[in-house]
Structures are given as structure tokens and as C-alpha cells.
Design a protein that fits this description.
Layout lengths: L3 E6 L3 H12 L4 E7 L2 H11 L3 E4 L8 H8 L7 E5 L4 H7 L4 E4 L6 H19 L3 E5 L2 E6 L2 E4 L38 E6 L3 H9 L8 E6 L6 H11 L3 E4 L5 E2 L3 E4 L6 E6 L2 E6 L12 H11 L4 E5 L8 H9 L3 E5 L9 H7 L5 E3 L1 H14 L2
Parallel strand pairs: 1-2, 1-3, 3-4, 4-5, 9-10, 9-16, 10-13, 11-13, 16-17, 17-18
Antiparallel strand pairs: 6-7, 7-8, 12-15, 14-15
Length: 375
């Protein structure tokens, strides 16, 4: 079996040693080298030719974020961030990093082993991922030495909506409109994603106008990061976005994000909906799980729902989306060409859970068209 070539970039001797030893002990990886800072990494990458990079964000001299912006246009290598809890993680994901792992706060053995297990899993996923690079026009997907621009399809869909040049202080208007159309008050939009999903969800949500039906979102993410991610979405989207709390009522113009480490379900509240946030058990390998959310939407909202499954490794959400479709929901899957990892959408498509499969830049317009067609 061909081993994945990995390079570790971290200024901490302790973490470099910890990561190198853990990755080297796994037969799937070959640690081809390490770097002590960004400039050291920039010099060594052409020599070592790694296929996956682990990268600390906070380093002396050039930060990991600055390094990513210089590296990825020249060398589109999947990068797994290894960092403390820091809002800059989302800036690095926007710059093209594939995923992130939170460093343990102390040397507790159990937490350290859990961290290493997560790291190894993320590096495996990264080895199957493609790099998503922001551009002024939207983004490009880099696949090895071949760079392809995701321009929708031959039908001439517009270029992907750009997030790269959006000022952080600006709360933009959605660039699509429902016009005079009025969706049903009990309509629900459910979105699920994993690897590559933080930027994919943002790309979709930024195109929505304020007058959207209630939205529920599950993105695979650990505790501590979902509140920051919800704040980022809220700042950059017209729709209000919050990290969900148990009992929150779903309303038009509001999106609720499943909190990290807790399962979120849609429940009926009188004539409307609310969310239940409880339980830390893993379902389909994840907590929060897309299948848990989609199953609840299938049961509660039935044919009043729209389901969207975006980029991610594995099959979480596929079975739940199939239940949604069988119960009358309209379901949308992201296509292979625009996915960082064509896993979850592929599994959903293979089992017949997807009504239509479209490029990422066409997801929002497909949702809007479906809402506009409702009576």
C-alpha cells in the first residue's frame, strides 16, 4: 500500500515530536520531514514533496495564515491545521486549509490520545481531499497539478459568489431574491456538511436574501468552534445565524447551527418548530450528526422541507436525506467537481437520496427556485 507523504510544520519541539511519532507509527503515512517555521517549510516543500501538511497557525515570523496564502497557489497541498482555539482557524480555512484539529490544553493522557486519534483521521481525510482556493471571482478547486475552475455547467451558470474580498465588518445583502413569492410558513431548509463545509456553507448562505424560511445546519465541528463559526456566518450573511440552544424556536430569516459535541433535532412546537439540543452519543460516527438532523426533519417537516448535502468524507447524512426524500422533501446534493471531498454527497446520490445534483455555486439558486415554485 502506497503511504501518504506527510510533513509537519510547528515551532514547538514538543508538538513536532508528538505529531511526527504518532504519524510515523501509522502504516498509512510516511513523515518525510518537518519544518520549524513557515520560511523553513517554504524551502523544504519543493525538496520533500509532501502530499499532506500539518500546520500550526501561531508561529514566529510568518504566521501559518500568511504562509497558506503564499503556499497554496504554488503548491496546492491539503493542509490540516493543528492549533489552539483561535478564530484565525476560520481565516485559514477560507484561505484553503482542508480541516483543523484543536491542540490539547494540557498533557492529560486521555486528551492527548484523543487529539492524536483525531489528527490521524483528519490526515487520512486530507489525503483524499482537494484544495479549494479563493479568488476574486469565487474559488478554484486544485487537484494535484491540475487546476480547474468550477464554473457551474455548460448551461452558463454564473461564476461562484466571491467571499474572498468581502470586508469583515460588512453584513452583505443576499444576491438572490424571492421577489414577491411567499414560501409556506412551515417550510424548513436543512443543510449538512463536513470536510470543506465551513466555506461551502458560507458560499451558499451568503447568496440567500433575508426573507428565507427557517434554516437548520449541521457541520461536523468540535465544541468551542461552533459559536465562533455561527458568529462568522452571522457577520457575513443577510440571514441571522446563531449557535442553537435547546428549545430555540425556528423562525423565518433565522439559521440555527448545531453546537459542537451535541446532537440537534427539529421538533414540533405548536404550529411551528423548535430545536432539541441534547445527547453526546455519536451517530454515523459523528456528534453532531447530519443523519440525526435530517431524520428529525424527515419526520417533522416531511414534504415542507428542503434538504442540502454538501462536501464531506464518509456517508453521514445520506440515509437521513433519503428519508427526507421518501417523505416528500426536495433534496439537493453538491456535485463532485465542486466538492473538496466528494463523499457524503456521493453516498447520498448513490442510494437515490438526491433529487438534483448541482455545483456549489448553483445550490442557493436551486433552493430559491424551489421556494419560489411553492404555493
Amino acid at each position: 500500500m502506497k503511504k501518504t507523504r506527510v510533513m509537519v510544520v510547528d515551532d514547538s519541539v514538543m508538538f513536532r515530536s508528538l505529531l511526527t511519532n504518532a504519524l510515523s507509527s501509522d502504516p498509512r503515512f510516511e513523515v518525510v520531514g518537518f519544518a520549524v517555521n513557515a520560511m523553513d517549510a517554504m524551502n523544504k516543500i519543493p525538496l520533500y514533496k509532501p502530499e499532506v501538511l500539518t500546520l500550526d497557525i501561531e508561529m514566529p515570523g510568518m504566521t501559518g495564515l500568511e504562509f497558506l496564502k503564499k503556499l497554496l497557489p504554488k503548491h496546492p497541498i491539503p493542509v490540516v491545521l493543528v492549533s489552539s482555539l483561535n478564530v484565525r482557524v476560520f481565516d485559514a480555512l477560507a484561505a484553503g486549509a482542508v480541516d483543523f484539529v484543536r491542540k490539547p490544553d494540557d498533557q492529560n493522557h486521555v486528551r492527548r490520545e484523543a487529539f492524536l486519534a483525531t489528527l490521524i483521521n483528519k490526515v487520512v481525510i486530507a489525503s483524499h481531499s482537494r484544495v479549494r482556493l479563493p479568488t476574486a471571482e469565487g474559488f478554484i478547486i486544485a487537484d494535484g497539478t491540475v487546476t480547474r475552475k468550477t464554473s457551474g455547467s455548460a448551461s452558463g451558470r454564473p461564476a461562484p459568489f466571491s467571499t474572498a474580498t468581502m470586508p469583515a465588518s460588512t453584513k452583505p445583502l443576499g444576491n438572490l431574491s424571492l421577489g414577491s413569492s411567499r414560501f409556506n410558513d412551515d417550510t424548513v431548509l436543512a443543510i449538512g456538511a463536513s470536510t470543506g463545509g465551513t466555506e461551502a456553507i458560507l458560499a451558499v448562505m451568503q447568496q440567500f436574501p433575508a426573507q428565507m424560511p427557517g434554516i437548520v445546519i449541521t457541520q461536523h465541528m468540535p465544541p468551542g468552534f461552533t459559536a465562533m463559526y455561527a458568529e462568522r456566518l452571522n457577520r457575513l450573511c443577510k440571514v441571522e445565524v446563531r449557535e442553537a440552544k435547546h428549545g430555540d424556536r425556528l423562525q423565518p430569516g433565522l439559521a440555527l447551527l448545531a453546537p459542537g459535541g451535541i446532537q440537534m433535532r427539529l421538533v414540533r412546537m405548536g404550529s411551528g418548530y423548535s430545536v432539541s439540543c441534547s445527547g453526546a452519543e455519536k451517530v454515523s460516527g459523528h456528534c453532531p450528526s447530519v443523519d440525526v438532523l435530517f431524520d428529525s426533519v424527515a419526520s417533522i417537516a416531511r414534504d415542507k422541507a428542503i434538504g442540502v448535502i454538501l462536501t464531506g468524507m464518509g456517508a453521514d447524512g445520506a440515509a437521513g436525506l433519503l428519508r427526507m426524500r421518501k417523505n416528500g422533501a426536495y433534496t439537493i446534493g453538491q456535485d463532485k467537481e465542486s466538492c473538496v471531498v466528494y463523499g457524503m454527497p456521493m453516498e447520498a446520490y448513490k442510494i437515490g437520496a438526491v433529487c438534483t445534483q448541482v455545483s456549489l455555486n448553483a445550490v442557493a439558486s436551486t433552493v430559491i427556485a424551489r421556494l419560489a415554485s411553492q404555493k
